[in-house]
Amino acid sequence: MQEQSFPRRKGLLTPVSVLVLLILPLVDLPSANGSCEFPSSWTGEWYQYGKSPVTINTTVLGDRACVERTDDKYVVFNIADNCYQCMIINGRHENVIQYREAWCTLERKNLEELCSVITSDDMLYSIFRINSKPISCPFSGSSFTFTYNRGYGECTMPISLAEKCTDESKLLLKYQACPDVEGTESNTEELQCLAVWNDGRNKYLVGTLKGRNVQSDPYRCFLYEEKPHHQGKMIYLLAQSGDPTCNGLTTVSEGSPTIKLTKVDKEHGRCKYPSWVTQHHDWHSLDGTKNYHFTNKNATLKIKAQAQDINSETFHEEKIVCHNVEKYPNENMQGSKVKLVAHVTSGCDIGYVCMIFHKRDSNIIEIQQSDQKAIMPDEACSISDPSTMPHMTLISTSLHQRKCPNLGRYEILEFAPSHTLSEAVMSRRQRRSDLSRTIKRRTWQDNTEDAECKSTNIQIGCTSSDQTEMIIANTCEHEEIAYFCHGSWEEKGTWYTIASQRNSEFPASLGQTFCFSMRLEGVRDRVLGRGGRQKQQEQELWLSVPSRICQRNSEDEYMYRLSNQGVCEDLTKAASSAAFAPSLSQPLFTLSIAAYVAINTLCVLLWR
Ligand SMILES: *[C@@H]1O[C@H](CO)[C@@H](O)[C@H](O)[C@H]1NC(C)=O
Ligand SMILES: *[C@@H]1O[C@H](CO)[C@@H](O)[C@H](O)[C@H]1NC(C)=O
């Protein structure tokens, strides 16, 4: 038999191979008879430059069917071209396969013969798994400076910056433009690492790039080298492939571009969060969806937030490293308000923020954070003022009972959304039942279910000797809601109280805590006596919805107007003396109280 089309082929034909060659053309096309299989770990969809997605299973690799195998050598039947060829295929990583191939022959020859013509000079094809699981990038450290070269000289001034994202498979490369080097521009690229492997002394990395210059085919291959620098600083030399293959990578000094990464040891100024923050390793938001965890010698704060979708298991993670403390009111870090600059890594959104920590109680803190990230730490507190930002109220895992503020017993005069309250001024002498009807008609006529849920009186600190309970009696289901107070503080005339339901199954368990705000305010003059000779200022206590955040400056909430029935002590005395009728000559009602409560929220949240 003569080889017609492949003059390079040489070697003697053994009797066995002659036999094989004589027989094979008579046999049917290779069937998947189980004798030849690709590794099952390769099964999946793969990307190869210039080809549509390559599907691999144990019998086919793209348009090649497995016919015979010895180690990494495969005789395959090329379905598209109707011929046999040898492929030497290596799985480099679960996400990368590389192969070389011989030419196609019409007759099936034996494996040795078909494969012997492949040399290391032949083209090496790389295929990358689609939707693969990323890996941590192989660079130790989280911050780097780098220089790069696109073939016109090294861009060193200004130096470029690279940072690892929260997800350690991602590295953000912030290229700077060097005015004196051609081919440089400022640009940001996000590298996601997918695979690393060694081939002899060479180390390879495959990843995808996201950025304005990478439109499609985002896969890139890197040849890289680690070089311990003097002073122990690690340096990484990288050569990037010019296309979505691993071709042309022979030395780290040639690439498109080459990159030299130097690890930066961030001097975060031995900065520590205040001791009253770090005395608890874990803090939680009131609804339990955010967890703040302090690690790494009290200098790193890791925030884990549940995704909006409750059923989703995904978390958003943020890392906040204390950089320097702006101001401590006193030296021992015990001041109740501390302002500091911190380095935030939120996904690939990285920079410096300004933060204010407020101590409210040993188990309650609040955090305010600027809403913009600065590139340089010293800009963090000037580009955005954290004191105007929302407060994040955090509680430690265990809460104590604390005395409630504004102790006393209050009776409802009215409740209504605040915007309707002004039109709905009602007499305090009106009987409660009348009031209920009025309210029902006025404010809840569109929602009869909510109409059944009205508080009738509120007792703060009257029911236990330690004055830590707050009772909101509610005609909704004829029950009352009892809260434990866990700490309160006052700010510009408003009291904020952290409370949890007393009768909840797990007292003060995660996500069962609320914030009430109360404000005593003189709102209008009340005319007393005949002819209006006496004037008395009424005060109102605003009691907010039991909210998951301690809201500031929010007026548009629902409210009750309550009258004060006296302080708890008076009631106790009155009860013990069995004199239930209050003396009318005693101005017990000098303080009339209004409180606002989103009663529908109460019902929905608490009466289920
Ligand atoms: C592999 O894929 C081919 C083509 O899609 C199919 O015909 C064959 O049955 C598959 N083999 C296995 C083992 O799933
Ligand atoms: C972290 O802070 C807590 C409370 O202030 C302290 O007890 C602990 O020793 C600190 N840990 C380190 C490593 O500084």
TrEMBL record:
Q: Where is the DUF7043 domain?
A: 268-385
Superkingdom of origin organism: Eukaryota
Q: Where is the signal peptide?
A: 1-34
The residue ranges of the DUF7044 domain are 35-116
Domain DUF7042: from-to ranges: 133-263
Keyword list, A-Z: Membrane, Signal, Transmembrane, Transmembrane helix
Span-the-membrane segments of this chain are 588-607
**Biological process according to GO:** autophagosome-lysosome fusion
- InterPro entries, alphabetized: DUF7042, DUF7043, DUF7044
* Any single Pfam family the record assigns to this protein: DUF7043
Could you tell me what this protein is called?
Ig-like domain-containing protein
Q: Which organism is it from?
A: Camponotus floridanus
